[in-house]
């Protein structure tokens, strides 16, 4: 760890430079906080944590490179003493559950007040066993209860299937005779339900859970011929 007994060393990880600068200003206004470095992607984040061994890592969930769960796992392996707080625009229960299992000590929505962020940093550093969450009641309840089956509305499925075809929000809105704002709102709800951090992530998770149908131009998997013990059944790779 780079911080002294009284100073809390912090690494700031986010791919938006302006957000990092604003976060640094908030943190360094505290006499006991020291920002020891910044990074904008997963590899840079891991290298920074390995070099500085900060007390606390503030990690944006959508940085380029490895997904957040993999990044957290890598950080925990090289610097298990560093306490990781996730910063996110979304609080889907599936994503939250995966990150908690990977070893994060905090999960804050980016809409939190600065004082909540400051308190969270001090809490996880001074009480390593403490968990700090600032998420919706629904997400917290689902995580506590072990999660529940994701259900998309017909409209959400329709929008996600069009998103899977790489259509823009404007194109989807035009096709469905809706406004772009409505499409964005539906996508935000979809991301939250699936614990997704991007369109591609949402589409992949929805396909894996059979919540949407594959694109029509993609051939269905073919059965393997002469599979022992499965006569009359299809076996897929």
UniProtKB/TrEMBL annotation:
Keywords: DNA-binding, Phosphoprotein. Residues 9-125 form the Response regulatory domain. Residues 212-237 are annotated as: Disordered. The keyword Lipid metabolism does not apply. Residues 145-210 form the HTH luxR-type domain. It comes from the Bacteria. One of its GO terms (molecular function) is DNA binding. The modification 4-aspartylphosphate is found at residue 60. It holds the Pfam family GerE. This is DNA-binding response regulator. The lineage of its organism: Bacteria, Bacillati, Actinomycetota, Actinomycetes, Streptosporangiales.
């Amino acid at each position: 760890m780079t911080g002294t007994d009284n100073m809390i060393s912090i690494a700031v990880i986010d791919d938006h430079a302006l957000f990092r600068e604003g976060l640094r200003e908030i943190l360094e206004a505290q006499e006991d906080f020291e920002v020891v470095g910044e990074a904008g992607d997963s590899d840079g984040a891991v290298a920074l944590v390995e070099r500085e061994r900060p007390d606390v890592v503030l990690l944006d969930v959508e940085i380029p490179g490895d997904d957040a769960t993999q990044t957290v796992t890598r950080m925990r392996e090289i610097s298990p003493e560093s306490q990781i707080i996730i910063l996110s625009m979304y609080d889907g229960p599936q994503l939250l559950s995966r990150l908690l299992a990977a070893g994060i000590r905090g999960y804050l929505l980016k809409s939190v007040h600065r004082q909540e962020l400051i308190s969270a940093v001090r809490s996880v550093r001074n009480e390593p066993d403490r968990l700090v969450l600032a998420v919706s009641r629904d997400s917290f309840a689902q995580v506590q209860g072990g999660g529940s089956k994701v259900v998309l509305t017909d409209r959400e499925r329709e929008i996600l299937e069009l998103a899977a075809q790489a259509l823009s929000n404007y194109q989807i809105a035009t096709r469905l005779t809706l406004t772009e704002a409505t499409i964005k709102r539906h996508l935000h709800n979809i991301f939250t339900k699936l614990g997704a951090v991007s369109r591609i992530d949402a589409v992949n998770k929805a396909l894996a859970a059979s919540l949407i149908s594959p694109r029509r131009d993609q051939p269905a998997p073919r059965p393997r011929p002469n599979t022992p013990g499965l006569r009359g059944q299809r076996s897929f790779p």
